[in-house]
Design a protein that fits this description.
- This protein is of the alpha+beta class.
- Among the domains are: 76 residues, no CATH class; 205 residues, no CATH class.
- It is built from 14 helices and 7 strands.
- The strands form 2 sheets. The protein has a 5-stranded antiparallel beta sheet. The protein has a two-stranded antiparallel sheet with strand order 5-6.
- Strand 1 and strand 2 form a beta hairpin.
- The longest helix is centred in the C-terminal third of the chain and has 38 residues.
- 28% of the residues are buried.
Length: 433
């Protein structure tokens, strides 16, 4: 076929194969009729004849009239989720999806997080992007602010896998969790929980107030205008909620129906072992040089605060010669005292932090430890077991299997609902194309 939809962000542009430039070859192309992901093939010479550039359908057995016709007029499309193939372009979509998951798990300000407008927290008052993580953790000083890179996340995942290996095989846990997220019966539970999430936004005054302030905030308006070329001020609260809910449903359906086994494993590893429910102390995560740099940075922050307080207590004029205050801006005796106080406070903070981390880890580890040994055998050996447990969950039965199913499902939904998924191409969106 000679024409296809080129996907850029959440925009679709109808292009001819001959219009595709070299820089566009990594783009995602989709058939406007069957919505399969296409491969862009350059023109070439065969047996002395010139063959024009074309778009090629995958060999997936899906019938499409555009396979045999060069033009089309119909714009009706089927649901994209049922038609996604396993070609190269689909691997790009999976990598983009996993990148988003990792952005929610690392701390670095350099990563391009796109938290949902509906994910409310305290930071909207300061006109900066809210941090899409658990506020109970974020209110604690510097908890896991050191998980800044993918290498840190990978090390944390390996640390946590080892920590449970004395009572549970982490690979068996991962395989069992994949069975849960791939169950056909996940859909009704997702629909129920996502509907509850939307209703909670409407009835929770604190959440709604936070959302409205962000909606009217100049930073958020500018941010969404740059990202989506749309003015969020012109959209109703109800519309934005419905749009976000549709994206959540779509992503969860994509995970359930189309995410490959390999990338499902990566998702579950981040979900279970990269979780804030299993935080890792800085000493167990960073290499020697990184650890020294991290602690010195925190100590310098504490030093400036202590020096400021000491100089203010003595009625001395505070350093004002530049917007940035350095240690040398303070008298020597203030520096010495402030440094001692900073060292002591850092030790106290890290000791208290270690205690909180240990208590938080204990909650999750105890839950996993109490799961029956034969539960995972039943999940992995009986293809119908997970579906039966979902029925038990629907009927409000409370068993260890139900607890596990609910735990995996809730962890997945809790993570997915925090991100604005419209940053990705709408290959997942819960609509009929």
């Amino acid at each position: 076929m000679y024409k296809a939809l080129m996907i850029i962000g959440n925009l679709e542009t109808l292009v001819s194969a001959g219009e595709v430039e070299h820089k566009d070859f990594k783009r995602i192309f989709q058939c406007p009729i069957c919505h399969s992901t296409l491969t862009s093939r350059q023109g070439y010479i065969r047996n002395g004849s010139s063959m024009p550039p074309t778009f090629v359908h995958p060999d997936n057995g899906i019938s499409c009239t555009a396979r045999n016709s060069y033009e089309f007029t119909s714009t009706s499309r089927q649901n994209a989720l049922a038609l996604i193939n396993q070609g190269q372009s689909n691997k790009k979509l999976e990598r983009a999806f996993l990148n988003c998951i990792e952005y929610l798990t690392v701390e670095s300000g350099a990563t391009p997080r796109v938290p949902s407008m509906l994910w409310s927290d305290k930071t909207y008052l300061f006109e900066r992007l809210p941090h899409p993580r658990d506020l109970r953790i974020q209110s604690e000083p510097w908890t896991e602010s050191y998980v800044e890179k993918r290498s840190h996340l990978k090390k944390k995942i390996e640390y946590n896998k080892i920590s449970i290996s004395d009572f549970l095989d982490p690979d068996i846990l991962i395989e069992s969790a994949i069975k849960v997220i791939k169950s056909p019966n996940l859909s009704w539970y997702v629909d129920q929980k996502v509907k509850e999430f939307g209703e909670e936004i409407l009835v929770d005054r604190n959440v709604m107030d936070g959302f409205l302030k962000k909606k009217d905030n100049s930073h958020w308006q500018s941010y969404y205008s740059r990202l989506y070329s749309k003015d969020i001020g012109n959209f109703s609260v109800k519309y934005l909620i419905e749009e976000h809910i549709s994206h959540i449903r779509g992503i969860l359906r994509y995970i359930n129906r189309s995410l490959s086994k390999e990338n499902s494993q990566s998702l579950i590893e981040s979900l279970l072992f990269g979780s804030l429910a299993l935080p890792v102390m800085v000493d167990d995560l960073l290499a020697s040089q990184e650890l020294t740099k991290y602690k010195n940075s925190r100590k310098n922050q504490l030093f400036l605060r202590e020096a400021h307080n000491l100089q203010e207590a003595e009625g001395m004029e505070l350093p004002t010669k530049s917007p940035v205050v350095f240690r040398t801006d303070f008298p020597d005796y203030i520096q010495s005292k402030a440094w001692q106080l900073a060292q002591l406070e850092l030790e106290n903070i890290l000791e208290e932090l270690a205690d909180r981390i240990a208590k938080r880890r204990q909650v999750r580890l105890e839950f996993l430890r109490k799961l029956p040994e034969d539960l995972f055998e039943k999940i992995l050996e009986n293809p119908l077991f997970v579906d039966k447990v979902f029925i038990d969950l629907y009927n409000s039965k409370e068993t260890s299997a139900v607890q596990f199913i609910r735990f995996i499902s809730d962890e997945l939904i809790s993570l997915i609902k925090r991100y604005d998924w419209s940053i990705l191409p709408l290959f997942y969106k819960d609509i009929l194309f």
